[in-house]
Amino acid sequence: MEIALLVILFLIGSVGGAMQALKYVERRNPGRRAKHDDQAPNADDHEG
User: Fold this and answer.
1) Model pTM score
2) Mind listing the pLDDT tens digit for each residue in 5-46?
3) DSSP codes joined into one string, 14-48
4) Dist. CA 23–CA 11, nearest whole Å
């Protein structure tokens, strides 16, 4: 039981770390994700 709990916590931590890394990379070089150029220039600033 404890092992399953540790595995779940580890997975949650890994996903959280990956999300933080993605946000950090996006903050470092903005304009990398130019997939939707038809939107407003500052559309990326309104992410929840």
Assistant:
1) 0.46
2) 999 999 999 999 999 999 999 888 776 555 555 656 665 665
3) HHHHHHHHHHHHHHHSTTS--S-TTS-TTGGGG--
4) 18
